[in-house]
Specification:
By secondary structure, the chain is an alpha/beta fold. The chain has helices spanning 11-21, 30-40, 54-64, 82-89, 108-114, 134-143, 195-204, 239-250, 252-270, 301-310, 326-329, 339-347, 359-373; strands at 48-51, 72-75, 93-96, 119-125, 147-151, 159-160, 163-164, 171-175, 188-192, 209-210, 227-228, 276-277, 285-286, 292-296, 348-351. Strand 4 (119-125), helix 6 and strand 5 form a beta-alpha-beta unit.
Length: 374
């Protein structure tokens, strides 16, 4: 089965991990700081906090923002459930706003319509790697005293009007799952420029521990002494995985170029195919294409999905509208809330896209799709 996405691991990645395994530090060592510094070179210099997954990155970002009971988080339904569930677990109410028809990103007009004095965070999702409309979302968030967050699980390496993903919002979460643009196996990170938010993120990912003598409430207890002033969790990403991530980031430019070439080939090979709508990039957007998300028209998405997979082409659907999950249904969320997102979902299909995808395999996927739609 040709997968829709997969990691690209070479000998330099293996050597980086092996070097850590032969060293003194498997976790909480120098490879962590090295990875965070390497990642900051891709976020326009915005400092980064490494964590154990993209989900924990969202959790850390919301916790750093002070999200809690009585707060509302406005976000897109076209995302994996973690964008919403991590806010809910902190006691917030998630308010879903509809998406734009062309990019499937959060529609600023739809977000504006649901903002209230209780809105704590507005979280945009960079669907398929295309940055959301942060220029429009930022003033809306500020007007309501809210922070702007980016779920950039798809968009590490993307730029919008020359600004890097990681510098477009107040808080940005990344994912390094194997299918993402670079991988640590499992892992994530939060990019945040504000020193106060950065400190809160770092402490939350490490149990809330305080070790600095000037901040301790009982500084005379001894060199072993440490304190917890606010609760946190153990979301530390170990050195072994950070070493892999640093090596992957050295290859990220090549990954981006290869993905762009594959997207250009798809656009050329699928141009003019009836019953098919291709993805677009808005002016000023320089996406790190994570998905090649086409739309299958005329109600044929299920048929095309089944026939493509029967032909050995591992297409995927990304994603079920988040509030369709039973956990949200049980809380009173209902279908029909975001009609544009639901229409997009009914037609969306991700074709194989990853750096090691060969032209021959891409041709095979295109041929199968063209034959089904003919």
């Amino acid at each position: 089965m040709l997968p829709y996405g997969r990691q690209s691991i070479d000998d330099t990645d293996i050597a980086a991990v092996t070097e850590v395994l032969r060293g003194d530090w498997l976790t909480t060592g120098p490879a962590v700081a090295g990875f965070e510094a390497a990642l900051a070179s891709w976020t326009g210099g915005v400092p980064c906090v490494s964590v154990t997954s993209g989900t924990s990155a969202l959790h850390v970002a919301y916790a750093a923002a002070g999200v809690g009971p009585g707060d509302e988080v406005v976000t897109s339904p076209m995302t994996f459930v973690a964008t919403a569930s991590t806010a809910m677990l902190l006691g917030a109410r998630v308010v879903f706003a509809d998406v734009s028809d062309d990019t499937a990103n959060l529609d600023p007009r739809a977000a504006e319509a649901v903002l209230t004095p209780r809105t704590k965070v507005v979280t945009a999702v960079d669907y398929a790697g295309h940055p959301a409309d942060y220029a429009a979302l930022r003033p809306l968030a500020r007007e309501h005293g809210a922070l702007l967050a980016a779920d950039a699980a798809h968009s590490l390496g993307s730029r919008l009007d020359g600004v890097a993903s990681g510098a477009l919002a107040d808080l940005t979460s990344f994912s390094f799952f194997p299918t993402k643009n670079a991988t640590t196996g499992e892992g994530g990170a939060v990019a945040v420029a504000d020193p106060g938010l950065l400190d809160r993120a770092r402490r939350f990912r490490c149990h809330g521990l305080v070790r600095e003598a000037e901040r301790l409430r009982a500084p005379g207890e001894g060199g072993w002494h440490q304190e917890v002033h606010t609760f946190g969790l153990n979301y530390r990403l170990p050195d072994v995985l950070c070493a892999l991530g640093t090596s992957q980031l050295r290859r990220l430019g090549d990954f981006k170029a290869r993905r762009a070439r594959l997207v250009a080939r798809y656009n050329e090979l699928l141009a003019g195919v009836d019953g098919l709508r291709l993805p677009v990039a808005r002016a000023g957007a320089d996406p790190m294409w994570h998905l090649y998300a086409v739309r299958i028209l005329d109600g044929r998405r299920r048929e095309v999905y089944d026939r493509m997979r029967a032909a050995g082409i591992g297409v995927q659907v990304n994603y079920i509208p988040a509030y369709w999950h039973p956990v949200f249904e049980d809380l009173g969320y209902r279908r029909g809330m975001c009609p544009v997102a639901e229409s997009f979902y009914a037609e969306q299909l991700s074709l194989p896209l990853f750096p090691d995808l060969t032209d021959a395999d891409q041709d095979r996927a295109v041929e199968a799709l063209r034959d089904i739609l003919a």
